[in-house]
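We both want to read discrete structure tokens more fluently, so let's practise on a single case. Would you supply a protein for us yourself, any chain you care to pick? Would you write everything just below, so we can both look at the same thing?
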Amino acid sequence: MTAANANRRLPVIVTLVVGLMLSIMPLPGLFETLRPDWLALLVIFWAMQLPRTWSVGTAWIIGIVLDVAYGTLLGQHAVALCVIAFVTVRFHLLMRVFPLSQLTATVFALLALYQFILFWINGVAAVTAPAISYWGPVVTGTLIWPFLYMFLSGIRYRAHSGA
């Protein structure tokens, strides 16, 4: 791996590690149920921006790490992240030209799909949870997305330009 490739991969790896830390950091009561799905948001962003480098395989690895960190069914988050990464990669050319408002609506749909898959897997495994634990992260993730998108776009631009 050349130094240029390492410089391009470093921001992605750092954001994914920070996203994992934000995902497993303990929070009090209500904040825990309203925590955005940081890794799902990051997978959507990086799969949209760099679909050949960071896509379904990366989502699978991140999902397995998240399953181990949460202590949930092994593969639950991995499958859900792979599905949203696949949909994002499949439509990344369309999504990249969307205005931010339309992209935010698309991210809402992807986060809802992610939570639905988790809900379905938990239902099959007879794991119950309140509805806010599924819809809270979708709403907060959608509200955070425009700011996260602008922040990560700036990071990607700086890493790509070498500044």
